[in-house]
Amino acid sequence: MTWSDALKGVVGNLVGQAEQAALPDVLKGILGNEGLQTILTKLQGAGFGDQVQSWFDKNKGNLPITPDQIKTALGDEHVQQIAKSLGIPVDAILAALAEKLPEIANAAGPAANPEASANASATPDPKG
After folding, report:
1. Rounded to whole angstroms, how far apart are CA atoms 23 and 82?
2. Would you state the pLDDT for residue 3?
């Protein structure tokens, strides 16, 4: 390997690290509360409700979720769509979601909690 190859590798790694560092903020900005709630609802529907609810409970630690679990819940098409809109590889999106989704959901608070909105819509109308 020549010195120029080594330099290209180092620069490539730095660019990759910078992209990875910015990814959570990009995801938060693109998802917004509505997109976040859609993803969380799909995760709950796929059987990962315990993880999702742990992200909203300030008294408990966040339960982890894996990239494979996210891919299973969202489906290939949805994951591909997110990756394409961001111009980032699917694996990077899944890894970032697995790592940062609990933090993003926690920061979004009750407005993004699919269980809270489901309970609100199930509440009877006092007008009758």
Report:
1. 12
2. 37
Across the range 16-21, mean pLDDT stands at 51
Tokens of 2: 């020549």
Domain 34-120 architecture:
Orthogonal Bundle (1.10)
The answer to whether the beta carbons of residues 10 and 80 sit under 8 Å apart is no
Which of 97, 103, 51, 57 lies closest to 74, judged by CA? 97
Query: For residue 110, what are its two tokens?
Result: 């009750």
pLDDT digits (tens, 9 = 90+) for 19-75: 555 555 656 555 655 678 888 899 999 999 999 999 988 877 889 999 999 999 989
3-state helix vs strand vs coil in the chain, percent to 5: 80, 0, 20
**Which sign, positive or negative, has the C-alpha torsion 85, 86, 87, 91?**
negative
Alpha helical stretches, state H, the chain: 3-43, 49-56, 67-74, 76-86, 90-108, 114-122
Half-sphere exposure of residue 106: CA atoms within 13 angstroms, side-chain side: 16
Model-level pTM greater than 0.85? Answer: no
